[in-house]
Amino acid sequence: MFYGAMFLVIGIYMPFFPVWLEGRGMSKSEITILISAPLFARIIFSPLLGFMTDQSGNRRLALILMLWCSLFFCSLLIFSYNFYIILVIFTLFGIFWTTVMPVTEAIAMLQVRQHGMNYGHVRLWGSLTFIVASMVGGWLIDLKGSEIIWPTLMVAILLTLMLSYRLPKTSEIPSQPLENAAPLPPIKPKDLWILSKNPIFILFLFAGGLGQASHAFYYGLGTLHWQSLGYSGLTIGLLWSTGVIAEIILFIYYRKWFEHIRADTLLLVGSLVTVLRWLITALDPPLWILFAVQSLHAFSFAMIHIGAVYFISKAVPEKLSATAQGIYGAFAMGSLLGVMTMLSGPLYERFAGMGYMGMALVSLTAALLSWRLTKIWDGKQLKV
């Protein structure tokens, strides 16, 4: 239930928060700056808050505190119409909210290891509630206008906060301790330095990172552009939902379909399909074609994500896997996505929907780097 509530927030925020910002008088460039600010902040504060959470030994309590802070700063937005005030408040909100997901994942993984919880089913419920939120959010905008987004977001965060009190106390002694698990060798600073400068790992960071960062235009301005084409809020919610449904299907069957495909090949195929997706989207095709193109989200997002996870699991030593995942997350979903989001505003103001062509170019670069990765990586663990 907690996962479902958390994805209600995401399902309202991602598609429709830019609409609320535009309703508050923000330009496209200002909107993309506001959306990118928390992405840059998370590079520093997410690892810091995550470290403090691990040090406290009580992830549930830390999660509750982060949600209270998220609720508080979100509440301040109702009084905000000035760009700079919104920038400060929204950045503070983002610092805490963007750390909620990693801490939740840590709690979930603990439950998987200790109690055999089915993580796939839990994550599936999150995706399903995202679909519901995006459709309901679009319907509410049709009825009440953009100002309805803020109270809807507040209700979703409050529900998430209430359900967080029902999460297990991770500071308790595990009921099924992993007594036979071999401890991982300690991480040495030298190992981190060698990993960070490894040319294959750096190539992977840019190949996977640019593939994900090419979604910046879609995340930041996709809804606003579809509104300009005359699509209703409900239709826009259904378009977002189509992408998530396709993503769910791929996540369910990826082991069966892609188990024997190399990680770098998944990155290459995902990036090439992403090029096709943005090229077609840039042409403002008829609605039925747009729905079909939205299903390519299974490749443009999910396949690249799976390829990245596979690469880290195969190429990076186990003792550095969490660190490698953190570096990739900060680089792909932090700095690169932040930069591309900031560039999307001026791109849209000059070219409107044709700005997707710029994202196609970014995806093509990711595909070329992925192709290069297939040539220089032997599929084995890196020597770190």
Characterization of this structure:
The protein is mostly helical and 384 residues long. It has two domains: 1-171, MFS general substrate transporter like domains (Growth Hormone, Chain: A, Up-down Bundle), CATH 1.20.1250; 188-384, Growth Hormone, Chain: A. The chain has 15 helices and no strands. It has helices at residues 2-23, 28-56, 59-76, 83-115, 119-144, 149-164, 189-197, 199-213, 216-228, 233-258, 263-282, 287-294, 297-315, 321-351, 356-376. It is globular and about 55 Å long. The two termini are 41 Å apart. The relative contact order is 0.15. Mean pLDDT is 82; it is low at 171-187.
Could you name the key traits of this structure?
80% helix, 0% strand, 384 residues, Growth Hormone, Chain: A, mainly alpha, 15 helices, 2 domains
Short description:
By secondary structure, this protein is an all-alpha fold.
N-to-C SSE string, H for helix and E for strand: HHHHHHHHHHHHHHH
Largest sheet, in brief, is:
none
> Any low-confidence stretches, pLDDT <50, length ≥5?
171-187
Find the CATH superfamily of the largest domain.
Answer: MFS general substrate transporter like domains
Shape estimate = globular
CATH topology of the largest domain: Growth Hormone, Chain: A
- How does CATH name the architecture of the largest domain? Up-down Bundle
